[in-house]
Amino acid sequence: MRVKLYSVFLFFIGTLLAEAQDQENFNNPIIKDKFTADPAALVHNNTVYLYAGHDEAPKDFHFYKMDEWLVYSSTDMVNWKEHPVPLKPSDFKWAKGDAWAAQVIERDGKFYWYVTVTHKNIHGKAIGVAVSDSPTGPFKDALGKALVTNDMTTEHTDISWDDIDPSVFIDDDGQAYLYWGNTACYYAKLKENMIEFDGPIHTVDLPKFTEAPWIHKKGDWYYLSYAYGFPEKTAYAMSKSITGPWEFKGVLNEVAGNTNTNHQAIIEYKGIPYFIYHNGSIEPNGGSFRRSVCIDRLYYNEDGTIKRIQMTSEGIQNND
User: Fold this and answer.
1) Quick one: which of 55, 151, 249, 308 is 20 to 30 A from 123 by CA?
2) Pairing of strands 221-228, 233-239
3) Which residues pair with 35 in a beta bridge?
4) How big is the CA angle at 291 (ends 286 and 295), to the nearest 5 degrees?
């Protein structure tokens, strides 16, 4: 009897050790001590800076509660260092709250952060710009007012949350562009100062466009990825010009487990392309309003199209 119990005990301990060892190889989500969402990333001086909103909704609260943005850095895509909170909606005197999706870009030694907030005086969502001398901040309001307000786009849709999810890109000729939108995809040129538009707002016609546009370039191809349908998948289109015409290429990422939203960033670091996204996988309370950033490899086909993303629990490993 004792021998049998001892054998059961050894089996139980072995199982626990095996599970623990497996868990050590699970690098997704990359941040496990808090909920992070709407990732954007910047490569600067051989370091990756990850920017995310902080999901703080209680488990019985079924909407977004996001009161600050977070920033992390890494030099290996595996180990991430958290920096002090660099920016909050309250840093914009004209904003009422809601630290929704945002993106940072560097120009001439300064870092510009385009953010989604709720406007205090103009009904609906708005896009502001913050600036810093460091990728980790602190950031401050660069304009003193919103760059985009809801009343600027009412001819395209009558919803109050269409002016969200800014994505900024500087083309090879130095011209900067801002893309953004929900149900309608907008873009406009930015002046060299990065805080004013240089021309009218345009729209892009994309199949089942929901939100979260992201622009990147590889070789001669421009890529516009975005949240597709609802619950959201990620789809993408390609063009030889940042202003189109865009050719739809299909789904890139499937519904990202246990969350209705799918928000991506695509970067290349040390010659390797990465796909950064969020899901709701942290147990027991992860979900659509308590999301977590994950990273997996991205691969191109010979013709420039992108292979379907394979979402993994392992994520990026040290030997990748």
Assistant:
1) 55
2) antiparallel
3) 55
4) 115
